[in-house]
Write a structure and sequence with these properties.
By secondary structure, the protein is mainly alpha-helical. It is 62% helix and 0% strand.
C-alpha cells in the first residue's frame, strides 16, 4: 500500500480510482502494477522511481521492511536535496 500511496502522490491522482482498497490490493497481489506516466518519469529522480518499484515487488520478501524503507527514503532525500 505504501508504494501505491507514493505513486498517487507523484501522479496527483488515485492509482485505480474505479476500485475500492481491497480490489486495489488484489490487483497488486496479482502482479498488476500501475505504470508511471512519462511526465512523472521526466520530473522525478530515478532513485525515487526505483524505490517505488522495489516496494511494489510481487514477492513480499523482496520488498523493504518499513524501517528499511524509512532508511532508504532518508538516503534518497540526502542525495537529492
Amino acid at each position: 500500500m505504501f508504494a501505491l500511496i507514493m505513486w498517487e502522490m507523484l501522479h496527483a491522482k488515485l492509482v485505480w480510482n474505479q476500485f475500492n482498497t481491497a480490489q486495489a490490493n488484489s490487483k497488486v497481489l496479482e502482479g498488476n502494477l500501475p505504470d508511471f506516466e512519462q511526465s512523472v518519469l521526466d520530473t522525478t529522480p530515478p532513485e525515487i522511481i526505483d524505490f517505488i518499484k522495489e516496494c511494489l515487488a510481487h514477492n513480499p520478501d523482496q520488498r523493504p521492511s518499513f524501517s528499511e524503507a524509512a532508511d532508504k527514503l532518508r538516503e534518497i532525500y540526502l542525495k537529492i536535496k
